Amino acid sequence: LSTLHLKFTMLSKYFRYALSLSAAALKNHIDLDKKNSMSDYNSQNHNGSVWDFNWDKRSRGKEMDANLKKANSKVVRHIIMIRHGQYYQRKEDSSERILTELGRKQAEVCGDRIRKLIKYFHPVQLTTLFASTMIRADQTARIICERIGMPVEKISYDPLLEEGAPVEPEPPKYNWYPEEKKFYEDGARIEAAFRKYFHRPEPSQKEPTLEVIVCHANVIRFFVMRALQLPTKAWARMNLAHCSLTYVRILENGEVNLVYLGDTGYMPIDMVSYR
Fold first, then answer.
1. Would you say the pTM of this structure is higher than 0.90?
2. Within 10 A of 231 (CB to CB), how many other CB atoms are there?
3. What is the mean pLDDT of residues 151-170?
4. Are 113 and 271 in contact (CB under 8 A)?
5. How far from chain centre, in Å, is Cα 202?
6. From CA 101, how far away is CA 21, in angstroms rounded?
7. Helix (H, G, I), strand (E, B) or coil at 43
8. Which of the 8 DSSP states describes residue 55?
9. Which domains are delineated in the chain?
10. What is the CA radius of gyration of the chain?
11. Is 216 exposed, middle or buried (0-12, 13-18, 19+ CB in 10 A)?
12. What is the dihedral of CA 44, 257, 160, 245, to 10 degrees?
């Protein structure tokens, strides 16, 4: 009987201890909820949404963003990303990784498509054409400029847009094993490129803009995942054809829309290539 009484006493103590922990945890949870509900809009999401409305650290505040959305603001950044044309991938010297004959034709057809899109977006003007400094992107950008009637001197080259390993993909790619330091170095650079090119319109912007970025498949796929606030490790689950178009809209209140991804519908089917 004494043994049974001892066990009962110990169970009672454990039960009271568990209740005290539960009460403390509940109090902490309530306090945290109160703290979050009173936090500044710029560090919290709308209505508990998982979407971070201040993803670019340029939010003008909850009331202003709501007013912009309600007013259906026309100040939008239209960003069209283009993967370069097919190139000689197996060349060891990077200077020899130039466009193939098919790659040049792809760039020409792509340029014609961009010219039509410029007419479609009228009166919005193509403000800038950015390009990676890698030769295959440079050649693609130059051909596009020729087709749309833009002087090649207006191409803005940026080494941040060069191809690389943005983040270790999940699941891993069976035929692609960069060193860990490659992800460390390239990841920081490509993230810097994202922060440079992806943000809502500045307060000084009064009209919509159209920008074209000629770069690489890994970079574009990472940009898309990052812009949509999706797991960036999933970037390799998508595939992009050469000279495919990926179109993203960024609204004045910070909302992001992916209009299309890897579009090659404008290109004859026998010209579509991935490698």
1. no
2. 12
3. 96
4. no
5. 18
6. 71
7. helix
8. T
9. 78-271 (3.40.50.1240)
10. 26
11. buried
12. 170
